[in-house]
Design brief:
single chain, mainly alpha
């Protein structure tokens, strides 16, 4: 591995800018130059070969070349395109190449404003191997506090990128964006949510596209699951971002989750009910949902129907049994309806589902 001294951080910005274009890297190392050129190709096989070569070569070049590589990652657009590639192999290879560059001493932090968005989004990739590689790369580049400090420093840039991704037609990109937003909130557990971050989260949650998947039960299953995960984290760390200020037809994400309970699919039951247990503690979310539901029934009625449906599926029954008490404790006015629905569901359920639902008594709901 090459030794990187202060020279890596002393290269002139003008020199770095001159050495890169949207596609090319103009360092002196031929092997590195060829690798970078291949990384910019559209063909997956060529990209994979280039990213692998880049990861291998990074530890063998000097500080100036590494500085130019760091600038190339940011200015070429390869980080954004490769980490968002349709092929999970390319996304994983891009993350591993970033980790190799960071480990070799490439000053990626100098360009964190450009790199942070797509890089952080990759940590929530739907392919586990990609997410693991992206997390490892992030921690290699931002080692302080396990990467948390780097995330906190780049919150605005990350949320800007994630917000733009939510406006796309790519289901996978939207799911990554929502999952990454949830991880950003999670990362604040050790640093706290200050006023600036709270405002950023409120603005992010208020975007029409953020909880679009919950409206009317539409949207991709994985995207809705990511919505629920984000809501659960927001309710714990920044509850104001779960509900929008009143006015017009706006409904906050927490209210949408409460309203979506009746129509959700079994595979999302655990994520949904975990979110409900969190957002039910935010009074404004419950008030919003109750007001919206009143136009065609009641919120209590919708949740009761969701519980009754649990009788038809063991996976849902287990999710409801484990989390319904938390929902009732968070919003006591819902406890009576939930208890009655559980009793009805036990009667209709098969043996296994009834066992799960029957374990939650009215006493437990009121505890």
């Amino acid at each position: 591995m090459s030794f990187v001294g202060f020279a890596a951080f002393e290269a002139e910005d003008a020199t770095l800018a001159a050495a890169t274009t949207r596609r090319a890297f103009a360092g002196k190392d031929d092997a590195l130059s060829r690798a970078c050129k291949s990384c910019g190709k559209k063909d997956a096989t060529t990209r994979l070969r280039g990213l692998a070569s880049l990861a291998e070569r990074a530890s063998s070049v000097d500080a100036r070349e590494l500085a130019l590589v760091a600038a190339w990652w940011a200015e070429s657009g390869v980080a954004r395109s490769a980490l968002g590639d349709d092929d999970a192999r390319v996304r994983e290879a891009a993350a591993k190449a970033l980790e190799a560059c960071a480990a070799a001493g490439a000053p990626l932090r100098r360009f964190e404003g450009e790199l942070a968005g797509p890089w952080w989004a990759a940590t929530a990739d739907g392919a586990p191997e990609v997410a693991r590689a992206a997390v490892a790369a992030w921690r290699a580049a931002f080692p302080k506090n396990g990467g948390v400090a780097g995330a906190a420093r780049n919150r605005a840039a990350i949320l800007d990128f994630l917000g733009a991704a939510l406006a796309s037609d790519d289901d996978a990109a939207r799911s990554r964006a929502l999952g990454a937003a949830g991880k950003l909130v999670d990362a604040a557990r050790s640093t706290g949510v200050d006023d600036r971050f709270r405002e950023l989260l409120r603005a992010f949650a208020a975007q029409p596209a953020t909880f679009k998947a919950l409206k009317g039960g539409s949207g991709d299953v994985l995207e809705r699951r990511a919505c629920y995960g984000l809501l659960a984290r927001l309710a714990a760390q920044a509850p104001d971002a779960c509900a929008l200020d009143g006015g017009g037809k706006k409904v906050g994400g927490g209210a949408l989750a409460l309203l979506a309970a009746e129509a959700e699919e079994p595979s999302n039951a655990a994520a949904l009910w975990e979110a409900l247990a969190a957002v039910a503690a935010v009074e404004r979310c419950v008030d919003e949902a109750a007001a919206k539901a009143a136009k065609s029934g009641s919120l209590e009625g919708r949740l009761a129907q969701a519980v009754r449906k649990a009788a038809k599926d063991r996976q849902v029954a287990r999710a409801v049994a484990e989390r319904a008490p938390a929902v009732a404790r968070a919003a006591p006015r819902l406890a009576e309806a939930l208890a009655a629905a559980l009793r009805d569901a036990c009667v209709a359920a098969d043996h296994a589902s009834a066992g799960s639902l029957g374990a939650v008594s009215y006493t437990h709901l009121r505890a």
